[in-house]
Design goal:
- The complex is a heterodimer of chains A (225) and B (378).
- Chain A has 225 residues and is of the alpha/beta class.
- Chain A has a single domain, classed as P-loop containing nucleotide triphosphate hydrolases (Rossmann fold).
- Helices cover 33% and strands 28% of the residues of chain A.
- The C terminus of chain A is likely disordered.
- With 378 residues, chain B is of the alpha+beta class.
- Chain B has two domains: 177 residues, no CATH class; 183 residues, no CATH class.
- Chain B is 55% helix and 19% strand.
- Chain B is built from 13 helices and twelve strands.
- Classes of the chains: A alpha/beta (225), B alpha+beta (378).
Chain lengths: 225, 378
């Protein structure tokens, strides 16, 4: 398998606070990686840098041959639109747009909208009958499924999920996790931040953070250094 | 998708935007009313000032004294009117000749003005006449007297009036009593040929009074052309009228322009306050749009289009209301409705769109929103 993500000595500081203190690892295309660790250990900072939402203080974060740290503002915008699909714990749907329009919003910023494709994406996550609903009229699980459909609509190289089940009840969590299983089976590359060991155990590998460093690197995982 | 998003943005923030649109409609209404008034004020004022009578006088010459029928103070009637007709200025409302002599009426000396009685209402629209200006009867020599003369000589309509001048006498019939509110109330008005015949000055006149429409400058320009064409005569605007008209016009225009600018600034400030609050509300949405790959230009363009639509809508609605307001103001101030100037519509809409965009400056700050910062909840 080809390396999709390569992180080398990645550091990020917010003033005097060191969020990432020299992190290095690689992710092969098609892998599902669970990023685990206590709050404030740097997991979300890593996801943000890999997704082009934040820039590193030093080190390299290469995604699909693009060194994210070297991109300017417009380069980061293109990078996010073309290569990344985000799924957030808080769903982050636009409240005055319907489920369909939330998915089409990602299409709009990527290139052009295709309503038929957006409908199919929602049908695929089991929301064929909720297409015209506003987020406020959807359950948490349904909102997260809209977010999954939105993340996939532009066929991203990398799916970054930050605690995607953190706000869901058990039943909805299972539905969403099943979606991730399906995505993984289809060959998508997934980096998922999670606190839940049960979910982490579903991933191909687990990377555990503490105080901005990798603290648990399973010996069997040669791609993690 | 752009228009779909735009519509949803407008609907999604309708509560806040109502405040902005109310400010824009109110501003546009007053501005369009004032602009409509401003565009029409010159015509209205000119009409009002023409009620004041003649604003231009042609007299025999710089040194002439218009005190009577002295030959040196006269000019040729046909030459003066031929020149006026040759210049063919449509702004000339009335051009009326006068020849003044002093006659005796019932042993009382009175100033007699020979003129074209039928043209006097056009020259002096504010004069009030009791009776008529002329008579249709061929067996009468009609005359009109000022109200003071009528009072002094105890004259009533259809009374006979005897005039004598240097041994000549004439029997006149009083057809009208005029209330001019000035020195003319002490005069007797006859048809010009009668006075010329009395005075033995056929074809001679003492002066021509003109009522000319237009601004002080256009009247002065016309006077200059007349003066060039009549080098032996003096052509002068009646300064009190033309200068008062120009001065009043300038003051009203300055007032209107100041009001328009003030309202534009106040409207922009109101929109600014609303948009600042809206920008704070939308930081989350903008952070998300950026995370999804939305460029700053595309996101800000979306919000600017929203504000532009608000401005144009406010401008359109306000312009319609403003036209009605200007009609009402015209009715109150001038007694007649102000004419609608349709160019006010695009002008008001453009002004309001510009004001709305200027007031939307806080939305530009959304371009600096960092998605990671927003998602951290900072």
């Amino acid at each position: 398998m080809a390396t999709l993500v390569q992180v080398e000595d990645l550091r990020k500081e917010f003033g005097n606070v060191r969020a990432l203190a020299g992190v290095s690892f690689r992710v092969e295309a098609g892998e599902w990686i669970a990023i685990m660790g206590p709050s404030g250990s740097g997991k979300t900072t890593l996801i943000n840098i890999l997704g082009g939402l934040d820039t590193p203080t030093s080190g390299q974060a290469i995604v699909d041959t693009v060194d994210v740290g070297r991109l300017d503002e417009s380069g980061l915008t293109r990078f996010r639109a073309q290569k990344i699909g985000f799924i957030f714990q808080q769903f982050h749907l636009v409240p005055y747009l319907t489920a369909l329009e939330n998915v089409m919003l990602a299409q709009y910023f990527h290139s052009t909208t295709d309503e038929k494709e957006a409908r199919e994406a929602l049908e695929r996550v089991g929301l064929g009958d909720r297409i015209e609903h506003l987020p406020g009229k959807l359950s948490g699980g349904e909102q997260q499924r809209v977010a999954v459909a939105r993340a996939l609509i532009n066929h991203p190289k990398l799916i970054l999920a930050d605690e995607p089940t953190g706000n869901l009840d058990e039943a909805n969590e299972e539905t969403v996790i099943q979606l991730f299983r399906d995505l993984h089976r289809e060959g998508h590359t997934i980096l998922m931040v999670t606190h839940a060991s049960s979910i982490g155990s579903l991933a191909d590998r687990r990377i555990v953070f503490a105080h901005g460093r990798l603290v648990q690197i399973p010996a069997s995982l040669k791609s993690v250094t | 998708m752009f228009w779909r998003l735009l519509w949803k943005l407008l609907r999604g923030s309708s509560g806040r935007l109502v405040v902005a649109i109310l400010a824009l409609v109110s501003g546009a209404m007053v501005i369009s009313a004032l602009l409509n008034l401003e565009f029409d004020i010159e015509r209205k004022l000119t009409q009002e000032f023409r009620m004041l009578g003649a604003n231009l006088v042609i007299s025999p010459g710089h040194d002439a004294q218009i005190t009577g029928a002295a030959p040196s103070a006269l000019m040729n009637e046909s030459d003066a009117f031929a020149t006026i007709q040759n210049l063919r200025d449509p702004a000339v409302e009335a051009a009326v000749p006068f020849l003044y002599i002093v006659e005796r009426a019932e042993d009382t000396p009175v100033v007699v003005a020979g003129t074209k009685l039928e043209d006097l209402p056009k020259l002096e629209p504010s004069w009030r006449i009791e009776g008529q200006w002329t008579s249709s009867r061929d067996d009468q020599i009609p005359c009109v007297v000022g109200r003071n003369v009528a009072q002094q000589l105890h004259l009533a309509l259809n009374s006979p009036l005897h005039l004598s001048y240097v041994g000549k006498t004439a029997q006149l019939t009083l057809v009208g009593i005029v209330d001019a509110g000035g020195a003319e109330d002490n005069q007797v008005f006859l048809q010009l040929p009668e006075v010329q015949s009395f005075a033995g000055l056929p074809g001679q006149i003492g002066l021509v009074q003109l009522s000319v429409r237009g601004t002080a400058k256009s009247i002065s320009d016309y006077a200059a052309r007349l003066a060039t064409a009549l080098p032996a005569n003096e052509v002068r605007p009646i300064r009190q009228v033309t200068e008062a008209e120009g001065d009043l016009l300038n003051r009203i225009r300055l007032l209107i322009v100041s009001m328009v600018l003030l309202i534009l600034v106040l409207t922009a400030l109101c929109v600014l306050a609303t948009m600042a609050a809206l920008a704070m509300e939308r930081r989350q949405d903008v952070g998300l749009m950026k995370a999804l790959g939305g460029s700053i230009a595309r996101i800000v363009a979306l919000f600017m289009a929203e504000v532009g639509v608000l401005g144009a809508t406010g401008g359109f609605v306000g312009a319609i209301l403003g036209i009605e307001l200007s009609r009402w103001m015209g009715q109150r101030v001038f007694g007649t409705a102000i004419s609608v100037r349709w160019e006010i519509f695009p002008l008001t809409i453009a002004l309001m769109a510009a004001v709305a965009l200027a007031g939307a400056l806080p939305l530009r700050l959304l371009g600096k929103v960092k998605p990671a910062v927003i998602f951290r909840g900072e």
